[in-house]
Amino acid sequence: MAKKFIILGAAESGVGAAILAKRQGYDVFVSDAGVIKEPYKEELEEFGIRYEEGRHSEDKILAADEIMKSPGIPEKNEMVKKIRAAGIPVISEIELAFRFKGDSRIIAITGSNGKSTTTALTFHICKTAGLDCALVGNIGISFAKQVALDPKEVYVAEISSFQLDDIDKFRPDVAVLLNITEDHLDRYEYKFENYIRSKFRIAMNQGPEDFFIYCADDPVTMKYLKQYHFLSNPLPFSMNQEPSRGAFIKNHEMHVKTGDEPLVMSVDDFAIKGKHNQYNTMAAGVAASTMGIRKDKIREAVTTFQSLEHRMEFVANIRGVEFINDSKATNVNSTWYALESMTKPTVLILGGVDKGNDYSLLFEGVKEKVKAIVCMGIDNTKIHEALGDKVPVMVDTASAEEAVQQAFRLAVKGDVVLLSPACASFDLFRNYEDRGQQFKDAVKNL
């Protein structure tokens, strides 16, 4: 009898998992409580996968041998509670992909901030070095779909805490933990500890031949690292100390050492700027060197990398005012990093759906660098309360177009208008990409 495999959620990860499970001979059924988007529906039909939308048929779901739940579905969901009570095993899409990856190697990258940039840069280095590789997970296509339709020798995967929550045997050859700051606490019973534990799961199954890359300057990582006994090889990266293996930056030079031959290069040659990107580049450099990639290839890739859309993306310079799109900054820490890299007076566009934000982190950066704040959201009360007395001017707007026009009015030649919202986008936009695109369109229409 084929394994009865039920998938909750029919977006990228759910449909990818369905295709892989079907190809592996599972009896697959996909259930989505909402409306399934047309392209995903077409894929399900193309592969002959049964599905339902607008409901969860309890009798079908609770008869499953195993369930994969999409990362967007929280534990407090009623259907999930019933599944847990019935004792049916629940896995995540990355667990399924791992099950069928064969001899391929995995570089898995997680962290509260910098995941997408570090993953994209690591992939760019692997590609530059000529490896047969794919960019998967939160940033590329679904990991499971890649394994099913176009398997590669190396997978560079961006992994969220939600995906790590339901792993069992998932074991990356190289695990990267960039940093841990308060984010998504609404999904972790507002307990920071739960979220921290989730992040460390990335290395829990690793063995002595695997590598665990982490930031020795991140206080939360270092505090909790002592509580875990990992078997993998530790490779720290730092700006404050000089580990004998891993990476560090000293006197404006990055040193990467995992084997016999160290790589040394000037941070002035990095394609992506800002202190946070120096951390991201160290992490990617160490990950690449564990794959045996030659140092000249790492150097070439680090100097030619194009930064990601919606992440500190230069949009335009209009009458001497620079516009930067950092719509991917969906938490306070990301915005802190963005402000840290500003060297000119800044008009900051903030706001959206608050995930339990603590804006006090931004006090110093705002006082030092921000001349005006433009709030862009349905409810801006919390931003006013936290930052109203830290800037000379604060205005409210309710669309990207209005926010851009107000910001341009408040800026003078030599200023920067920075969209770095520190919040989720769902009050006014479909997602952070939509928010970034509307911002860019509004800038072009000035």
From TrEMBL:
<dbReference type="GO" id="GO:0009252">
    <property type="term" value="P:peptidoglycan biosynthetic process"/>
</dbReference>
<feature type="domain" description="Mur ligase C-terminal">
    <location>
        <begin position="310"/>
        <end position="423"/>
    </location>
</feature>
<dbReference type="Pfam" id="PF08245">
    <property type="entry name" value="Mur_ligase_M"/>
</dbReference>
<keyword id="KW-0961">Cell wall biogenesis/degradation</keyword>
<comment type="pathway">
    <text>Cell wall biogenesis; peptidoglycan biosynthesis.</text>
</comment>
<dbReference type="GO" id="GO:0071555">
    <property type="term" value="P:cell wall organization"/>
</dbReference>
<keyword id="KW-0132">Cell division</keyword>
<dbReference type="InterPro" id="IPR004101">
    <property type="entry name" value="Mur_ligase_C"/>
</dbReference>
<dbReference type="Pfam" id="PF21377">
    <property type="entry name" value="MurD_N"/>
</dbReference>
<keyword id="KW-0963">Cytoplasm</keyword>
<dbReference type="InterPro" id="IPR013221">
    <property type="entry name" value="Mur_ligase_cen"/>
</dbReference>
<dbReference type="GO" id="GO:0051301">
    <property type="term" value="P:cell division"/>
</dbReference>
<dbReference type="GO" id="GO:0005524">
    <property type="term" value="F:ATP binding"/>
</dbReference>
<dbReference type="GO" id="GO:0005737">
    <property type="term" value="C:cytoplasm"/>
</dbReference>
<protein>
    <recommendedName>
        <fullName>UDP-N-acetylmuramoylalanine--D-glutamate ligase</fullName>
        <ecNumber>6.3.2.9</ecNumber>
    </recommendedName>
</protein>
<dbReference type="InterPro" id="IPR036565">
    <property type="entry name" value="Mur-like_cat_sf"/>
</dbReference>
<dbReference type="InterPro" id="IPR036615">
    <property type="entry name" value="Mur_ligase_C_dom_sf"/>
</dbReference>
<keyword id="KW-0133">Cell shape</keyword>
<feature type="binding site">
    <location>
        <begin position="111"/>
        <end position="117"/>
    </location>
    <ligand>
        <name>ATP</name>
    </ligand>
</feature>
<keyword id="KW-0547">Nucleotide-binding</keyword>
<comment type="function">
    <text>Cell wall formation. Catalyzes the addition of glutamate to the nucleotide precursor UDP-N-acetylmuramoyl-L-alanine (UMA).</text>
</comment>
<dbReference type="InterPro" id="IPR005762">
    <property type="entry name" value="MurD"/>
</dbReference>
<dbReference type="GO" id="GO:0008764">
    <property type="term" value="F:UDP-N-acetylmuramoylalanine-D-glutamate ligase activity"/>
</dbReference>
<keyword id="KW-0573">Peptidoglycan synthesis</keyword>
<feature type="domain" description="Mur ligase central">
    <location>
        <begin position="109"/>
        <end position="287"/>
    </location>
</feature>
<dbReference type="Pfam" id="PF02875">
    <property type="entry name" value="Mur_ligase_C"/>
</dbReference>
<keyword id="KW-0436">Ligase</keyword>
<keyword id="KW-0131">Cell cycle</keyword>
<comment type="similarity">
    <text>Belongs to the MurCDEF family.</text>
</comment>
<keyword id="KW-0067">ATP-binding</keyword>
<dbReference type="GO" id="GO:0008360">
    <property type="term" value="P:regulation of cell shape"/>
</dbReference>
